[in-house]
Design goal:
Length: 141
């Protein structure tokens, strides 16, 4: 049985806001996974005649994926320094870099590394949604 961490922390970023990030990150991850799930099925062989008639049907879908990433990037960029550090610390706890009992250490490290590339850093995490979700669960939020 896993023991819940005593609430020794206060989040300035609301858990519901983090859950919004999780939903956006899951949507982004699902869009990427769909592209690769079928493997070679997406390859198109073109002969001389078909090359002139080929149109990319996925442009509208790609645009919507870009919007999801852009929206998530903007949401992260709109966070204040404390909220951004907490989001990074949650991802680290969820990823297992820190235990929930080390929340203060994770937060201190995230604040020390704070910069204007937080969105790029977080969006570069392949399992961002899962790690944020696990981080929230670990700290009992």
């Amino acid at each position: 049985m896993q023991r819940r961490l005593e609430k020794e922390w206060e989040l300035s970023i609301g858990p519901d806001t983090v859950r919004l990030f999780i939903l956006k990150a899951k949507a982004l991850s699902a869009a990427v996974n769909e592209d690769y799930a079928d493997g070679a099925e997406h390859e198109v062989e073109l002969d001389g005649e078909a090359q002139d008639n080929h149109h990319h049907d996925g442009l509208v879908e790609e645009r919507s994926e870009d919007l999801t990433e852009e929206e998530l990037r903007e949401l992260i960029n709109d966070l204040n320094v404390d909220e951004a550090a907490e989001l990074v610390a949650l991802a680290w706890v969820g990823r297992g870099d820190y235990d929930a009992s080390e929340w203060a250490d994770a937060l201190t490290a995230a604040r020390e590394r704070a910069n204007k590339r937080t969105a790029k850093y977080l969006l570069g995490m392949p399992l961002l949604a899962d790690w944020l979700e696990e981080g929230l669960e670990a700290i009992g939020a």
